[in-house]
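Lab manual, section 2.4: Encoding a predicted structure.

Procedure: take the sequence of the chain (211 residues), apply the prediction step described in section 2.3, and record the output as structure tokens. A sample record is shown.
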Amino acid sequence: MIFRYRTHPRHGFEFVSPAITRITGYTPEELYADPESAINLVDRDDRAIMHDLLARGAGRVPIVLRWRRKDDSVVWIEQRDVAVYDRGGTLIAIEGIAREIADPTLVAQAPVRILGDIRIDLDRGRVLVRGQPVRLTPSELRLLVLLTDHPGRIVSRATIMEALWDSTHVGSGRTSEVHVSKLRSKIERDPRQPERIETVRGHGYRFVPSG
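Recorded output:
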């Protein structure tokens, strides 16, 4: 599907090719009539990615999103976008190609992980929690990736320290706890009563996806 979306001074689709109907069930005319359709097409947990695209412009790496069809089923989309600027450098439009792709979370070495309401874009180092971007330090991101490599499996403190610092030395026994605590403060609803990263006493930690 080929499209042009105006971002300034007004916003809304200026052109959508007829292929949009096959992909989503919506006609181009329905999308033209709704200035917010570019956002409303996107699954709520991925909308921050679309907001960022419309605010900042396109990067070199395609973006991968979940769209909601007219029947509310999910379709995975890869967008290759080009930002259009006026002479003053203001972003005025996004032009691009969107194509339906297979669920990228099911392939080997998947670039995207979806675990409950957490989304991890491994190729971009981006994390969304309940649809909102969360800024993690490099060590916090490595820890989250390690814990989510095999959800539900216990990861020992020694394994955590080796992954973060290339060392199995756990110091006073609280070094790994500090890193886990910092990560919990950013992804848990209530870090004092963690639901995502469970402590398994005497063994380590495990990640439990939540809705």
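Check your result against the sample. The chain has two domains: 2-101, 112-207.
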